[in-house]
Amino acid sequence: MLHTHFINGEWVAGEGHELSSIDPAKNVSIWQGKSATSAQIDAAINAARNALPQWSMMSVEARLTIIKAYGEKLAENKEYLAKVMAQETGKPEWETATEVGAMMGKIGISEKAYFERTGNVENPMPVGKAFIRHKPHGVVAVFGPYNFPGHLPNGHIVPALIAGNTVVFKPSDLTPMVAQEMVKLWAAANLPAGVLNLVQGEVETGKALASHNDIDGLFFTGSSRTGKILHEQFAGHPGKILALEMGGNNPLIVKGVADTDAAVHDIVQSAFITSGQRCTCARRLFIPAGQQGDALLARLIDVTKNIKMGDYDAQEQPFMGAMISANAAKGMVNAQSQLVGLGANVLLELTQPDEEKGFATPGIIDVTDILASLPDEEHFGPLLKVIRYTDFDDAIREANNTSFGLSAGLLADSEEDYHYFFARIRAGIVNWNRPITGASSAAPFGGVGDSGNHRASAFYAADYCAYPVASVELDKVTLPGKLSPGLSL
Ligand SMILES: NC(=O)c1ccc[n+]([C@@H]2O[C@H](COP(=O)([O-])OP(=O)(O)OC[C@H]3O[C@@H](n4cnc5c(N)ncnc54)[C@H](O)[C@@H]3O)[C@@H](O)[C@H]2O)c1
Ligand SMILES: O=CCC[C@H](NC(=O)CCC(=O)O)C(=O)O
């Protein structure tokens, strides 16, 4: 179907250049379309602007009725949506089923967050009453990444709509099909025309939408590189809200654990789930120097070697599927070569078994000897860098030696060590004896430094979807009992 854009309640064909989406596990084209032109972006924004008065002035209960109907459509179509996600991203079906589950869960959580964080408060005053209420920003653009093509844009769209905003959604150009199927479910839930619009396209479409004069805000999940471009673009526009959820170079420190296998499990879940394509994935693993550390590392290499990788639809499901594209897998091979060039020591080689496909085997590389020249980059794939340390303080200092600050973790049996670590580590998600991936939607989700701009998402998304309005109100104009000195009436 070439009608891949949803503008003002109608499916229309793009009028820009050709786009296609490739199944990265099978190297076949699964979706074709055309990008939105700037006239189509104008039309989408106009539609959202025109739909705004009616949508924002509906009661929140009436909006929630429609949003919950979308939740029902998600539930009715969950298997189908999970299959589409798996096909377009390469992620195994067991994992995309959890992604659809998170999308469904988002509705109840966002409803609760709306009332808890941005609801109405009424306080009596000596004369009249004081109110705190919240209003939507207006027309907001939502930009999504490819790694969670449903869950993460959904995590902006649902709270934005609950708060009364209208939306223009631009998904990643690597996952247009998931976006399209998701928007179909909104349409099936009878969302009024113009409230949610979908425009497809690459960077140029993103730039045109982000720089449009008539948006009131932009909610972005993606790389720090793009987020910084958007941040610069929004400089000088204090009236527009910008929420940035970006990448990380996340540390995980191991110190004094009795159960080696439990630690290895949490490391693998942190580093290699989603083939390392989660913003929260552990990128740098700190292991104590010495025999105990050697034993843990040997076990980690052994377990990682045996991780099952395969097609998303394999009967016996793999732990890791393909990465998003053959290019992304090649990028990881190149990242490994770059580290080797700097003097790093490969412990388990990351390979791309087929140049035409997105598979990359998990890799482990010791970078202890090149810390001074180690690039502070997010390598968004299954490559774990190991750093051997002798002093806990040094390890924490090095863990913080990054411009990012998304997630961090400590695997240690001592609670005292955890308190010490927690007080010193700089990140928005800090875990103890748990993987550092798999964050809860019922908690705030965001990072410091280059990982975000202090507008956490998930439970706190409600905060950036509405602005507070303070009022003092009295039902008729009334002369005060006592006038200010020097006044007579
Ligand atoms: N913190 C979080 O919540 C979170 C969650 C998931 C992914 N991520 C991060 O996202 C990245 C992976 O996703 P990605 O590669 O799709 O990100 P990306 O930055 O390449 O793209 C994100 C979106 O921005 C658009 N875009 C790209 N360049 C643009 C520009 N110059 N102007 C306007 N729009 C532009 C893209 O088309 C896409 O829709 C990783 O860095 C990962 O850590 C962060
Ligand atoms: O890739 C980045 C997201 C990773 C994911 N985080 C969440 O799902 C946050 C919760 C939410 O947004 O509702 C993870 O931690 O695995």
Automatic annotation (TrEMBL):
Keyword vocabulary terms for this entry: Arginine metabolism, NAD, Oxidoreductase
Function field: Catalyzes the NAD-dependent reduction of succinylglutamate semialdehyde into succinylglutamate.
PANTHER family linked: ALDEHYDE DEHYDROGENASE-RELATED (PTHR11699)
Protein name according to UniProt: N-succinylglutamate 5-semialdehyde dehydrogenase
EC nos: 1.2.1.71
CDD domains assigned: ALDH_SGSD_AstD
GO molecular function: succinylglutamate-semialdehyde dehydrogenase activity
NAD listed as a keyword: yes
Coiled-coil residues: none
UniProt xrefs under Gene3D superfamilies: Aldehyde Dehydrogenase, Chain A, domain 1 (3.40.605.10), Aldehyde Dehydrogenase, Chain A, domain 2 (3.40.309.10)
Similarity remark: Belongs to the aldehyde dehydrogenase family. AstD subfamily.
HAMAP family: Aldedh_AstD
Alphabetical GO biological process terms: L-arginine catabolic process to L-glutamate; L-arginine catabolic process to succinate
List of catalytic residues: 245, 279
Reactions accelerated catalytically: N-succinyl-L-glutamate 5-semialdehyde + NAD(+) + H2O = N-succinyl-L-glutamate + NADH + 2 H(+)
Pathway: Amino-acid degradation; L-arginine degradation via AST pathway; L-glutamate and succinate from L-arginine: step 4/5
Binding positions (NAD(+)): 222-227
Domain Aldehyde dehydrogenase: 11-463
